[in-house]
Design a protein that fits this description.
Glutathione S-transferase Yfyf (Class Pi), Chain A, domain 2, 4 strands, alpha+beta, 4-stranded mixed beta sheet, 2 domains, single chain, Glutaredoxin, 218 residues, binds glutathione, 58% helix
Amino acid sequence: MLKLYGFAVSNYFNMVRMTLAAKGLEFEVVKTFPNQNPDWTSMSPMGKVPCLETEHGCIAETHVILEYLDDQYPDKPILPGNSYDKARARQLMHSLELYLELPARRLFPGTLFGGQNDQLTIDEVKPVLEKGVRTINQLANCGPYLMGDTPLAPDYMALYILPLVQAVAKKTYGWDLLADIHGSAELLAALNSNEYAQQYSAESAAEMAEFVAGLSAK
Ligand SMILES: N[C@@H](CCC(=O)N[C@@H](CS)C(=O)NCC(=O)O)C(=O)O
């Protein structure tokens, strides 16, 4: 059986977990926090989560895991069938990560982890997020999902990226970023009506205290 390594607070882990559930695949979760132990880096070279253990070996990096799952288990596809639409889906996935998730992560210390962000970082991140928002609006065709009426891989990424980026933008800039992403309220409502999304969100909330305690112990 597929084994998914990670922990419930991790948004990347949840993107993969949600995809596995949406595709109706059986999998076992092995609770794992990122670390640099050789046993773990032999499976996930950067020491990050998630990592998927398959019958062939381990795969890390969320985009790659999602693509592998769709190639290996083509039922209930999470990427469009034709090459152009598939490329557009990938463009959305990369844009969500590169221009929203990763810049917002630079502000996690001062917004989510009880530390402080320096002004240079705050000033650098804002224009990247603004262009990221413009990019998502340009690429998406919400109805209510990012590419129409069926949830696909970009949606399972957006489900975990958008609320986090919203929280960071609100706290740092007082910016209601989601209000600037057309259709985001309908998109998130549709995605959150999924029973697995609700279950994983509850598990994430329950694990948050343990995660924060682990951070402050470092
Ligand atoms: N590029 C990776 C990013 C995964 C990632 O950053 N995961 C976080 C947890 S949400 C992590 O393992 N952080 C530990 C670290 O950066 O060393 C992916 O797509 O899976």
